[in-house]
Amino acid sequence: MRVVVGIGARSGVGAAEIVRVISTVLQPNWRVEAIASIDRKADLVAAVASSMGVRGVTYSAMELSTVVTPTVSVRVLDAVGSASVAEAAALLAGNSPQLSVPRFALGGVTVAVAGLSLDDSQGVRSIL
């Protein structure tokens, strides 16, 4: 299955730690197509995506805040302007109605995984 991974991270968390956390939730038959997050984490998204050999995509807080997610965080809302980053980014990038892996947090890293849907040419912004 082709998937996209939404990520969020506390300040100071590096790409290697995020890749490690991602690897704990991926299934063997999944192929990661992209890493997605909020635009203020663009450099981190680029580093993670580059280390995994995939594309990176970012969204504004406004774009992320339009997505209905299973998990919301007032702390994240106050910090970045969206109540969800990893889940919302995964759903947006995958053009998916549901998550394959809901929010999973470990050591300052949050990840969520959604299947990639290319219906209506919206998933991962039409494969960039």
Provide the spatial order of strands within the biggest beta sheet: 3-2-1-5-4
| Sheet with the most strands, sense and barrel status | 5 strands, mixed
Shape: globular
Tally of alpha and pi helices: 6
**Low-confidence blocks of residues:** none
Q: Output the radius of gyration.
A: 13 Å
Strand-pairing-aware structural class? alpha/beta
How many angstroms does the end-to-end distance come to?
19 Å
Q: Which percent range fits the helix content?
A: 25-40%
H/E series, N to C? EHEHEHHHEEH
Report the strand count: 5
| Mean residue pLDDT | 91
Strand proportion? 25-35%
Organism: Rhodococcoides yunnanense
Pfam families: CbiG_C
Domain CobE/GbiG C-terminal: 3-114
Protein name: Cobalamin biosynthesis protein
Commentary on this structure:
The chain is of the alpha/beta class and 128 residues long. Helices cover 37% and strands 27% of the residues. The protein has helices spanning 15-25, 42-52, 61-65, 74-80, 86-94, 124-127, and strands spanning 2-9, 31-38, 55-59, 101-106, 109-115. Strands 3-2-1-5-4 form a 5-stranded mixed sheet. The model has no long low-confidence stretch (mean pLDDT 91). Pfam families: CbiG_C.
Write a short abstract of this structure:
The protein is α/β, with parallel strands linked by helices and 128 residues long. The protein contains 6 helices and 5 strands; from the N terminus they run E-H-E-H-E-H-H-H-E-E-H.
Give short descriptive properties of this protein.
5-stranded mixed beta sheet; single chain; 6 helices; alpha/beta; 128 residues; 5 strands
